[in-house]
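Researcher: Here's the sequence for the chain we discussed earlier.
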Amino acid sequence: MSDRPFSHFDETGGISMVDVDSKQPTRREAVAAATVRMSPKTLQKLIDRALPKGDVLTTAKVAGVLGAKQTPALIPLTHPIAITSIDVTFDIDPSSGTIEINSIVRCEGACTCVYLILHPSSFILSHKLPSNRPQNPRIG
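Model: Thanks. This is the structure I predict for it:
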């Protein structure tokens, strides 16, 4: 962690959107992963597209892309982001009943590339699905 003060506060302690006018545009990448756990039986239904809500993974992928594109609208004080690519993938392990969600978002500009991993669509499967928070987020 840096010892420098949080840049979104002004001298009075109020919030302030950072001025990025003098920053040079750079290529950035944000990487995040999360794991969703469920019973192997439920996961098999998901794989077979036999759930009442249909193809949950495609819906989740589209939701991830839409969420990344809406970051400035969802997170206060975030600048618009010139996203150049979004990749959401799923690594499925039927025997353990887990899906590893991996995402990479690339952008170019003067602002940090921000990406959130949310899994509201997983509630389509079960209202009791445990999952971990995004792990190893990397922004560079």
